[in-house]
Design brief:
- It contains four helices and 32 strands.
- By secondary structure, the protein is mainly beta.
């Protein structure tokens, strides 16, 4: 590898903190400081404390948690369908390798994203998706929107997403030694099959799980019957999880996973095609993840540890990508070593009714490596590398003040060292703070509010195009920071439950990660309202959500051609879902819909409205409840439309992906 060290080295100024930011951090510090001094006295007293309502498996008010039963009910064939019932979370892209997640309009590259505790880093190429995930073994997804806790990790400018997969014990009964399931799915649109096999075993504290999936088929056709080139399903995913649980509660878990998508994709993977006729080309994406974790499932008030160490590596290869008259091979690797060491104390601090305090530190060391066949800008280096190292310490308290009043607040300090491809070194640091309050004014009616500021640091640039357009320049490069606010009301009475919240998120100096001038930045604003309501009636439910999103970059509407690593305006979106169980016969029927209203704010290219309806039926035969047969009819009305979260609909040089037309999905699952 070519190396250029000893170039001019610069030090970025510390990110400034406004008075409101300082107030949030100071408030957290004043409450947390006495808690740390009282921790020892709580241990000496050995008091037994009542549990609090906010736990590690829940999100703060205004967040979104997709639980196991919701995922199974959705029967998702891709990550987009995992969030299909949530208007505030949108996924765009026509193929698995091009999908991106947007939370309140903010792209997930501005969120802290983890899979089973392993940090995910994906800034290799702005035409590559950032949500390349097989949903087959997902157990739950927790999304903090905007204001997130300090212990979630660094870089949560717009919140966080935590994906959790199932363990062997999630598939086995307590006395079972072996089990699993096989699943076969047929997709009428791609004329292809998806196969899944999962094996699980447990014995005397040891457990293991092996999971494998394979997708196959042709390109799908949209609602007009037009073939969407480069969309043939080609994903393969393998996961192994092994754990040991001791008699005293200690648990050690090791995970290893490999995901690959390799096939013919559009010349720019997130666009259906380019109007200049650039041909589709072979592209391969691969991700390997290894992690080991230690937890105590029988903790004491003073000792409830969590240790996670992870390694994550993703690679991208694009064969003969067209740039005008030129075709160039691109290759890149993104590597991350990361970990977390934390302990949770149960304590009332001497002033509250009960509570928990989580404190600890986390770290990551990320490397982006790019290898281009040649540079269009005359740069001398064709193999280039950026590195980023961050160490952060955090404290997060979740306290019950009275039976009606709860508070979660915390802070963290991060120190980052960044090195550019030509040797420039930039050090930076910053404080982050958050506070969430909720109060039960009457049983079942709870208003809440939250505020936070997050230090974002400097992200890795687009490793696939390091030096592609010329020698990169790091002069003036500084860290990003966000300010997030929300206020809402949640209610539950009988079978009714609902939530409405208003949010306001700003991200200052978010980076254009592929610019030759590396300090090119934008100020982002996302604001709006989210509404959700559900009625459960014993044998079924009806649920609906609504989201209004207003998104701006430096005060202007951001078009999809320059939106990568930032976000998109989602406008007005509605979702609806209903299901009914006939328990005596083992049958479930259900339906869902998504509606996007026309958005005229971009007068040159208004976003068209659409409504999509899906229905399904599921049967578990009496006496054979280990068999599940299901039929989904997706896009029932055969609409031709481009999803609101898909790039390119506003770009005259692009033919955007349209979503699949009417599709019959047949699924057979056998548990053993």
């Amino acid at each position: 590898m070519t190396s250029n060290r000893g170039f001019t080295r610069g030090r970025a100024p510390y990110t400034s903190i406004t008075a409101s930011h300082a107030a949030i951090i100071l408030g957290a510090s004043l409450i947390l400081a006495p808690g740390l001094s009282n921790a020892q006295s709580a241990q000496d007293g050995a008091a037994v404390l009542e549990p609090i309502s906010v736990t590690a498996t829940e999100v703060a008010p205004g967040g979104v948690q997709v639980r196991e039963e919701q995922i199974e009910r959705a029967n998702p064939s891709d990550i987009k369908e995992v969030f299909g019932a949530e208007a505030a979370i949108n996924v765009g892209g026509g193929s698995d390798v091009s999908r991106k997640i947007y939370v309140n309009g903010i792209e997930d590259t501005n969120l802290n994203v983890k899979i089973d505790g392993a940090r995910q880093v994906n800034s290799a190429f702005h035409h590559l998706g950032t949500a390349i995930i097989d949903p087959g073994l997902l157990k739950t997804v927790r999304t903090e929107t905007g204001v997130g806790p300090a212990d979630v990790g660094p870089g949560s400018l717009g919140g966080s997403i935590a994906f959790e997969t199932k363990d062997a014990r999630d598939l086995l009964e307590r006395d079972d030694m072996f089990g699993g399931y096989g699943q076969l799915q047929y997709d009428s649109n791609v004329h292809g099959f998806s196969e899944v096999l999962t094996l699980a075993a447990q014995y005397d504290g040891f457990e293991g799980l092996l999971y494998g999936s394979n997708d196959g088929g042709r390109n799908y056709t949209d609602g007009d019957g037009v073939e969407a080139l480069g969309t043939a399903p080609e994903m393969r995913n393998y996961l192994g999880k092994f754990a040991w649980s001791g008699n005293t509660g200690s648990r050690i878990e090791f995970n290893a996973g490999m995901l690959e998508d390799a096939g013919i994709r559009p010349n720019r993977a997130n666009f259906g095609a380019l109007v200049n006729g650039a041909p589709a080309t072979f592209q391969r994406f691969e991700r390997r993840t290894y992690s080991i974790a230690y937890t105590d499932e029988n903790p004491t008030d003073m000792l409830n540890p969590e240790v996670v160490l992870s390694y994550n590596k993703s690679s991208l290869f694009i064969d003969e990508l067209a740039f005008g008259p030129n075709t160039i091979d691109l290759a890149s690797e993104t590597e991350s070593y990361n970990g977390k060491f934390a302990n949770t104390f149960s304590t009332d601090l001497g002033i509250f009714q009960s509570g928990k305090i989580t404190t600890g530190f986390d770290f990551f060391h990320d490397t982006g490596l790019g290898n281009i066949e040649r540079s269009l800008g005359g740069a001398t280096q064709l193999v280039n590398e950026e590195t980023s190292t961050n160490i952060g310490g955090f404290v997060q308290a979740r306290m019950r003040i009275t039976d009606q009043f709860r508070i979660s607040l915390g802070g963290r300090f991060d120190r980052q060292s960044f090195e550019g491809i030509e040797g420039t070194e930039i050090d930076g640091s910053g404080l982050s703070g958050n506070i969430n309050l909720e109060y039960d004014i009457v049983p079942g009616v709870t208003p809440y509010a939250g505020a936070g500021t997050t230090y974002g640091g400097i992200p890795l640039g687009e490793s696939a195009i390091y030096n592609f357009g010329g020698q990169w320049n790091y002069t003036g490069l500084t860290s990003s920071r966000s300010a997030n606010y929300k206020v809402g009301l949640k209610a539950e009475q009988g079978g009714f439950s609902g939530d409405v919240n208003f949010y306001y998120n700003e991200i200052y100096d978010t980076h254009d990660r592929g610019s030759v001038t590396r300090n090119s930045t934008r100020d982002l604003l996302s604001r709006g309202v989210n509404v959700a309501g559900q009625y459960d009636y014993g044998t079924g439910f009806v649920r609906g959500t609504y989201s209004h999103n207003h998104f701006r970059s430096d005060g202007d509407l951001l078009t999809s051609g320059v939106a990568s690593f930032h976000g998109l305006q989602m406008g007005d979106l509605f979702t609806a879902e209903a299901a009914h169980d006939f328990f005596d016969s083992g049958i479930r029927i259900g339906a869902s819909s998504e509606t996007a209203l026309r958005d005229d704010e971009n007068q040159a290219a208004p976003a068209k409205g659409y409504t999509v309806v899906n229905i399904y039926g599921q049967w578990r035969p009496e006496g054979f409840d280990y068999i599940t047969l299901r039929a989904d009819l997706k896009n029932l009305l055969d609409r031709s439309y481009a999803d609101r979260a898909t790039s390119g609909a506003d770009n005259a040089q692009v033919i955007p992906f349209k979503e699949p037309g009417r599709t019959l999905l047949l699924t057979a699952k056998v548990e053993f």
